[in-house]
Amino acid sequence: MAQTRKASRYIVPVAVAGVAAATIGLVPALAASGDPDLPEITAQQLIEKIAASDTQTLSGTFRISTDLGLPLEGLTSGLGGLAGGMGGGAGGSASVDPSERLTQLVSGSHTLRVAADGPERQKLTLLDGSDEYSLIHNGDDVWAYDSKSKEVFHEKAPADADAPGAHDGPKGKELPGTPKQLADEVLKAAGDTTSITVDGTAKVAGRDAYQLVIKPKQSGSTVESVKIAVDAANGTPLKFTLASVEGGKPVVDAGFTKVDFSKPAASDFTFKAPAGAKVTEGGAEKAAGEEGDPFGGQLPEGLEDAFGGFGPGLDSGKGGVNVIGEGWTTIAKIDTGAPAPRTDEAPKEVQGLLDSFGDKVTGKFGSGTLFKTKIVNALLTDDGKVYVGAVTKDALVDAANAGK
Fold this sequence. Notes:
It is built from ten helices and 18 strands. It has helices at residues 2-8, 12-24, 43-52, 72-80, 98-101, 179-190, 284-288, 303-306, 348-357, 393-402; strands at residues 57-66, 108-117, 121-128, 131-138, 141-146, 151-156, 194-204, 207-216, 223-231, 237-244, 252-260, 278-281, 321-324, 331-335, 358-363, 366-371, 377-381, 385-389. It is an alpha+beta fold.
């Protein structure tokens, strides 16, 4: 147990590296062939169209590919020996708990089926060959089922999950009341640091779509662009692509290959645990303290405030996080109050992991270790300060040197 607690100190950089994918979320998208001829539309009009969209029902299949630029082979081998301390089951099998199972979406390519019928019924199925992992929200119940292990997870949805405003925004923040107000807020938040344009049209899963492109104007950001394909008929986002300045594969490319906006059958959301299946009951008291979104989750303490978003609009001044800069080059500084753990004290299986994607850096601030992904970088100084953001290595070192 002591080794597990000690090892967990060295898992923090891994969590930092994965935060970007966690905060991006699953925005359905993908599959293009041909550019449809659509009426011209301005960026603000397209934002208003997205805000006015009231899609309550849909079903379809989409692919999500994530490439954070992590040395995943080293990551897998480095964490293999820690499965027992990280919720892994016997033989290192994945947990059926959705808060743990869906983290696999932060790497590789996956195919998912989705269905939704308003705020009370949603279903997501992760396909893996002939095996399936399904997450079902039906009224008061949230179920997860792993066909491979024959394990079931069940949890009662929070009592206020479908109350007005429950799904308005993060941590209960209400969105502006009208599409025009929302569009104005988005554009105001972007300010002088962001370029928002409409860049042509696309065909996505057989649907005509406009392409909204968001780009930083500032230098020093690791974000090259965010591109969202928006259904021309109903304003529903159909494609989300996040590209890094490093080039290569997109950091996130998620997209519908099939989509239908008609009402799914009620039976799609019905679930009964198979005979003999092991059923794990989730804590109702835990659910009551969360957001009422069965597909959501909590970021590590401190990092949640640092990554309320990955561009303009980052939350500040909470949870001991000091925010440096603005817009796309925002950096969160977290003072842990304790010297960084010495990597030579780390368990052997973790040592190779840290060495594989952590670089030693020096500057006026002293010395530290830089943990890199294609989108989020983090500098952990030897005196226990963390500088993290969707910015380049030089921007982090400059912030540390400034001693802000």
